[in-house]
Design goal:
542 residues; globular; alpha/beta; 24% strand; 13-stranded mixed sheet; homodimer
């Protein structure tokens, strides 16, 4: 016997409708590619999204057609989030940091019909326009004044012309909540990129979970600045969270340097931000060099990679910005865990609290997780046992687009590729990527722990620890270090810095200094490239 | 084309599983019918719920069978929330304040198979046991020591015997999330009670929405004391919210007097509570008389009836307890709106903020609302237009159990029976129940406004304003007042108190003092009974 509640599908369009009705005057502030600051409201966004939905229909975009973007965080990109998904098409946010060859591969694989792009990416579009198979229309996200002449792109349309040329009379259609809403390709380090296809249901459920007090804790009192790009797993869901909660939304556009971010945060009284550690590193350096603080920022979400403990302390102690350590994956929409305190931690010492915050946190309700041994058997949540982290839930991938890579699940669970511990309070800590683990003499050494120690040294800007082959131990750790500009640091001093901080046998066998550690399109360190570079490296004494 | 996310149904069992895994040691503290304080954890609750699920199967309870309760807020009732719904049966929480005739009617109508009851309600059970048609088994929610001898009830079982006699090896079944999970009858003032049938989907979605920062803002740092009964619309969802968030749960059992509540709040460091105005009135009187304060309580949710402005000020100014004014209905699971501030209110004056807080608040995301004129046409959200409030959403009723009362919807919207205004910021304010509106000379007078003024007078304990027939104006307002014990107050003084607070023509035509205003089973004033009592009342000058 079923319950007798209304059958109302969970649809993305209802988020912008809600924001318009309850928070019609709340602001969306964007730094534009054109350089200026643009201000509009949720009512404006809703009206223009409806105009764009009519424009898409006029361009022949139908149910489930893929609409690609190459765009920064800005109000036009936000309009596409609602216009495309809301009308029943699929928003395919592409990563402009990818090589044009990869962009072509992804666009063809997704069978994108149309591409919207910010002018910053004109050269990419020029490079791919003649090569992509299914994209027949290109839309420059600008007005007629800024539209490039003679861009050499056939069928180049102007975004503002499409808006102006269409009525805002549009009824958001209703459909099955399982309909595909958006897609994102994983920047896999091996094999072809794989498409992750989100649904309206998964997106709305994820939005509820991410906004909860013990997740990102977002409300109408907030001003949210997502540094994490809208082309990267939907900016961790924040464009949806903003509409659900009516928070002011501040979109930084192309300028992600320390000064630009800090200026915008101060001018717009931002209360919460979100991004990967590498972005924050640059911001912290800028603040330090210029003796600046934050007036209104009270917390920031750090994910994508483990947050180095030194960064956590710096944010909290120097700047009064509470750090929410989080973990997720493109395949998880992306949020899986967020590190919020429990009641009992109020009485804990500062060091105990940092011990908790070093972990990636507790599973948000909706995400099931477990750790398993190599045979797939459950491992205890005792804070010691370390194993492959498996997840499941309504916003976690069941298979990739076009079944790329075959069935990814193991008995209904998605293997994350991360190795983790979980403590009795349910706090999960990633100890490594399974492919980054260093297997020394039959034991595992977690590369992240070794990197975190190095990152605590004042002269280190970035550190990557990789396995190097060893005749006796199979593998031993090599530390690859990028120093801060102008800093002095010797191999010996850095190795000495490890004393007392980790088990002696975990100490890296050697240190190499590089000009720059290579970063991937989403800001993560490309350790596979370092492993390739140092695959024949001779460790001392070998 | 559907998204490629996992198909995981939203099930109530996943709430207790989540609480056990992530908050296994968080406490559930209950004042028992036996008088003592009982302490257990979410892990205990999960284990005993599994034992009870096995017990229910042993008693022949299958999918969608109705299991009734007559019980206070306590850990055993909580176990039934999860054991019954989690196993696929339907939890039917009955209101023990109803007349035994009504209990019989409801139990028969629901076709309850079994009844669990707290010993406080033994006399009700004795009164109905021989009369109910489908209940064949009665379970006293106590241990063998406290089990009444010779209760005169056939098939009387002991709760703790059922727990002890069953294994905790139980796998929560998976099923369609639309399956019925629980039911509650509305204590309608006219016609037969009508059953509202919730589903797993509606319950889980409601739980997400209720826990949000701008709703009840619940987290693992909270200790929640629901004064609102678990037999009344699932205690506004708090037993589910507690599991979703891992908050400590404090259950007051039968003792809802001011002293008992305050003692428990202080002893268990409660941070948030929820209940109807009449309960808070008693608590505030107790605090005032005994010069007490709250050490940890920082907010309370007030719903069920409009919160009198004087109560709001008292809580916030005298006790530092922030009031969350909320509105909902049994048919809405129940939460529809919660009154949380927006960013812009931070700079508002205290009086402006009280003006906002007097309203029932903004729609929580998931609830659509609108106000319409008598012809069903939309009215503007301008803070002035007042009309019938309509709602829709995935946790709002589509029809009553067994289609009692016919199709309740109007073009897909549920008519709430409330009359309301909505301001441009989306804040809704109930001006009246449509049946309580006083129609004077073709204009409407809101009875709630008139009651709120009276409640602001220090000598008034409770006030109800009702329409009395008038030869010239059709209807005019009569104020029915219950004075505070020992307080002195004349008709003239009270009418004078209205001067300058409302439009002159709204002033009640007369005041009558009564010993006690009659209250319904959920603590609301029974204005229909007052209208009956005063239907021939002669107003002065008529």
């Amino acid at each position: 016997m079923n319950g007798l509640m209304m059958q109302m599908p969970l649809l993305i369009s209802s988020l912008i409708v809600h924001a318009d009705r309850h928070h019609g005057n709340a602001e969306i502030v964007s730094r534009r590619v054109e350089g200026d600051i643009h201000r509009c409201t949720y009512s404006d966004c809703h009206r223009r999204s409806r105009q764009m939905a009519n424009a898409l229909a006029g361009l022949g975009i139908g149910r489930s057609d893929r609409v690609a973007t190459l765009a920064w965080n800005g109000y036009r990109h936000l309009e596409l989030y609602y216009a495309v998904s809301g009308s029943g098409a699929v928003l395919h946010t592409m990563n402009p940091r990818l090589h044009p060859d990869q962009v072509v591969y992804i666009a063809d694989h997704a069978e994108d019909r149309i591409l919207f792009f910010d002018l910053s990416f004109l050269s990419i579009v020029q490079a791919i326009a003649g090569r992509v198979k299914t994209i027949k229309t290109f839309v420059a996200m600008t007005d007629r004044v800024h539209l490039p002449k003679d861009a050499g792109i056939a069928n180049l349309l102007c975004y503002e012309d499409l808006i102006e040329g269409n009525s805002d009379a549009y009824e958001w259609p209703s459909f099955d909540e399982n309909l595909a809403s958006s897609m994102c390709y994983t920047s896999g380090t091996t094999g072809n990129p794989k498409g992750v296809l989100y649904s309206h249901r998964s997106t709305v459920l994820h939005t509820y979970a991410v906004a909860l007090p013990d997740s990102l804790n977002c409300s109408a009192k907030d001003a949210i600045l997502p540094v994490v790009p809208m082309f990267h797993v939907n900016a961790w869901g924040l464009p949806y969270v903003a509409c659900m909660t009516g928070a002011k939304l501040v979109l930084p556009g192309p300028r992600l340097d320390g000064k630009s971010l800090h200026d915008l945060m101060e001018a717009e009284q931002v209360t919460v931000s979100a991004g990967v550690p590498t972005v924050w590193q640059a911001l912290l350096v800028y603040l330090e060099q210029n003796h600046l603080k934050f007036a209104t920022m009270n917390r920031t979400v750090i994910g994508g990679s483990a947050c180095p403990p030194a960064m956590l302390r710096k944010f909290q102690e120097t700047y009064g910005v509470y750090v929410l350590h989080a973990w997720g994956m493109t395949e998880m929409s992306p949020v899986g865990t967020v590190c919020s305190f429990k009641a009992k931690h109020a009485a804990a010492s500062a060091e105990e609290r940092y011990g908790v915050q070093a972990k990636q946190g507790r599973g948000v309700y909706g995400v099931d997780m477990k750790i398993v041994d190599p045979n797939g058997a459950d491992l205890p949540w005792d804070g010691n046992a370390s194993g492959d982290l498996m997840v499941r839930g309504p916003w976690i991938l069941s298979r990739y687009f076009k079944d790329e890579g075959g069935d990814p699940l193991q008995n209904g669970w998605f293997p994350t590729g991360d190795v983790a511990k979980i403590d009795p309070d349910g706090y999960m800590q990633i100890t490594d990527r399974s492919k980054d683990v260093i297997k020394s003499g039959g034991e595992w050494i977690g590369s992240i722990d070794l990197e975190n120690v190095a990152m605590g040294h004042p002269a280190v800007a970035m550190a990557a620890c990789i396995a190097v082959r060893h005749p006796k131990w199979d593998e031993r750790p090599l530390l690859v270090v990028q120093k801060k500009p102008g800093a002095e640091l010797s191999r010996e001093d850095l190795l000495k810095f490890y004393e007392g901080k980790i088990a002696r046998w975990w100490t890296p066998d050697d240190v190499v200094f590089v000009d720059a550690i290579p970063l991937g399109a989403t800001g993560k360190m490309l350790k596979n490239r370092l492993r390739e570079q140092f695959k024949d490296y001779k460790l001392p004494g070998v």
